[in-house]
Amino acid sequence: MRFLAFLLALCVGEVFAEKTNIVFIIADDMAWDDSGVYGNPKVRTPHIDRLAGEGMRFTRAILTCSSCSPSRASIITGRYPHNTGAEELHWPLPGDQTTFVELLKESGYWTAAAGKWHLGDAVRDRFDEIREVDTSGFQLPAGEAGKTGKFAETGKGDEKSGCHEWVPLLKARPKEKPFFLWLAALDPHRPYDEGILEKPHLAEDVRVAPYHLDTPEVRKDYALYYDEITRLDRFVGLVMAELDAQGVADDTLVLFISDNGRPFPRDKTSVYDSGIRTPWIVRWPGHVEAGTVTAALVSAVDIAPSFLEVAGLETPGAFEGRSFLPVLRNPASKGRNFAYAEKNWHDYEDHSRAVRSAKFKYIRNYYHDLPGTPPADAVRSESFQAMLRLSKEGKLTDAQMACIISPRPEEEFYDVEDDPHEVRNLAGDPEYAEEIEAHRKALLKWESTTGDRVPGLRTADEFDRERGTPTAARVRPRLSKKEMVAKGLAAP
């Protein structure tokens, strides 16, 4: 009997050895183009650049939401945020949602997570091990939110990056099983600290977006954001080095993305490309040719079915994405015709939807009576406070006013190839009427097919829209969607 068990163990081990390991790395609030390999040489990212040099870099990768927890809930379930039960910030993912992680686990993978969690308690059992970063000690005192402080005074070291358990977790994995790792950073999320690098980025070297003010204060804000990207980059390099040291790098698929855009005005929480476009790098030796670049359009909702296909598993019917593995086999393929994104409550109420093709973007602002206020930590930043001051003096451009003005356009349409910063709204231009209508119909079809609708009840703002200070509606811990619906605080 013991001999038969031994033979069975050997056979299972051989099957497991044939499975591809998967490492999924998620930056927190990193713009798609803020790395050397994506065209910003001012940000020092040697390890991310190397990852791209050894794999495939996607230039048209789109997130389903530019908001931290809804974006992650969408990725792990392979569903659009409005179908996860966790479409608003801090809503925990319900336990009745199927994730790709438990399917990997059931097939023999060791599944583990380290760093930022942000998915709630109901799906913790989908992982064999979770090393969650306690972020409570990283919050600034009341009245200090949004300000920076000397890193040496925090005493947090690399723990504040959210990445310090990545390599220890990789070292602790059981060696007889294939593994899936969900490695989630806190970098480059606000608040920022000075002095985290021996050689910090210089304010005069940053690249300021045309819809932001170009002032010394804003440049300093950018430079601190760059510093956190470089700190994150170091941990990407450490993970790659550990895979090499364990001799499993050639048997491991690594995917690097960000959960949403830069935490600045008109970036994070917006459905502009600065919010929903993500770096997307795949390294998979033997399957992906080193140094390749693809312009194929892919969506974050496609990650779950792709990982399942890598593991040789079927994709559940409830998943709404499709595998992007055909792009890995043929980088010249076009990928999707359309990618879809949504904006829901994130500190402030909003409801916007977007559909993006390779060349165009159509946006529908259902709550166009509200301004496109950025997240509260960005509201408190000097980058936004300076914009508010100058807006009252009439000194901002139309693009800089985009997240302040109300009412805002009900419809927006951009040529994202010719106008990558989306500052020229073509919605009323008859030259683009045919394309506008095609994208409008595509969005309406997607809304109908996925059961998306405008809520009958708006969730209250938790912060003041000009100061970023808490309102009476801010209560922690935040209720789940089910609890809020039961109390009449959210629409079912």
Describe the overall structure.
This protein is α/β, with parallel strands linked by helices and 492 residues long. It has 2 domains: 19-135 and 152-342, Alkaline Phosphatase, subunit A; 345-486, no CATH class. Helices cover 28% and strands 15% of the residues. The protein contains 14 helices and 14 strands. It has an 8-stranded mixed beta sheet with strand order 4-3-6-1-8-9-2-10, with helices on both faces. A 4-stranded antiparallel beta sheet has the order 11-12-13-14, covered by helices on one side. Helix 6 packs parallel to helix 7. The N and C termini lie far apart (56 Å). The model is unreliable at 1-17 and 138-156 (pLDDT under 50).
The fold-level CATH name of the largest domain is Alkaline Phosphatase, subunit A
Give the integer mean of the pLDDT values: 92
Structural class: alpha/beta
**Radius of gyration, whole Å:** 22 Å
Give the SSE string: HEHEHHEEEHHEEHEHEEHHEEEHHEHH
Q: How far from one another are the termini?
A: 56 Å
In this structure, how is the largest beta sheet organized?
8 strands, mixed
Which geometry do the CA atoms define? globular
Q: How are strands sequenced across the largest beta sheet? A: 4-3-6-1-8-9-2-10
Portion of residues in beta strands equals 15-25%
What is the percent of helical residues? 25-40%
Q: How large is the count of helical segments? A: 14
Name of the level-1 CATH class of the largest domain:
Alpha Beta
